[in-house]
Design brief:
- The chain has 203 residues and is an alpha/beta fold.
- The chain contains 5 helices and 14 strands.
- It has helices at residues 12-21, 49-59, 61-70, 80-84, 188-200; strands at residues 2-5, 26-29, 40-43, 75-78, 86-89, 95-96, 101-107, 121-126, 128-129, 142-147, 149-152, 158-164, 166-174, 177-180.
Length: 203
């Protein structure tokens, strides 16, 4: 049973529908107390980092997510949800994140990019993936991205990289915690395969 966390930051329906396409029971969760009833959770999200953290803090969902992470059961953050897994973000100033993975979220550095590259990074791009259970059956999949900020973390946490002007971490893993910058729910068969791998992952 998959729990999809609702914290007013969008793309819930598309993630729910993707689970349905995979014949997986999923529920959208607003009550932090419900998280313990699930064997894995998805932290989706589209929007601003600070607004997301404010909502997680004010509703008690942050503490519930942290407890779930400690349980050892798998959880995955998607897009903004991935960024929230890190220690902090520089979006609209400094905001503390969940700190489940060491690292920070930074805006794309235009000084490292050719002028033809626009921010946000929007559209289809490739993840060059390491051999990992999350990418089982896939090699360098083509996926859909929409973001202006990206994770900066140590190599040991990175399971996939993407190049947009320069190389950045687009998929991460630390123990039972997974993060995925593109939108699998909008990435057709490749994205559904990644969600399926997460649903079936054994740690």
């Amino acid at each position: 049973m998959i729990g999809i966390i609702d914290y007013n930051m969008g793309n819930l329906a598309s993630v729910y529908n993707a689970c349905h396409l995979l014949d997986t029971k999923a529920s959208i969760i607003k009550d932090p107390e419900e998280l313990k009833n699930f064997n894995r959770i998805i932290l989706p999200g589209v929007g601003a980092f600070a607004d997301a953290m404010e909502h997680l803090n004010s509703t008690g969902m942050k503490e519930a997510v942290m407890e779930f992470a400690k349980s050892g059961k798998p959880m995955i953050g998607i897009c903004l949800g991935m960024q929230l897994l890190f220690e902090s973000s520089q979006e609209f100033g400094h905001t503390e994140g969940l700190g489940l993975i060491k690292g920070k979220i930074e805006k794309f550095d235009k000084s490292k990019m050719h002028e033809d590259f626009k921010i946000p990074h929007m559209g289809w791009n490739t993840i060059e993936n390491k051999q990992h259970k999350l990418f089982e059956g896939l090699t360098n999949p083509y996926l859909y991205f929409v973001h202006s900020y990206h994770a900066v973390t140590s190599e040991e946490n990175i399971i996939g990289k993407t190049t947009y002007g320069y190389e950045f971490a687009s998929a991460v893993n630390k123990d039972n915690i997974f993060g995925f910058q593109p939108h699998p729910e909008k990435s057709h068969d490749n994205g559904l395969k990644i969600l399926e791998n997460f649903i079936n992952i054994k740690l």
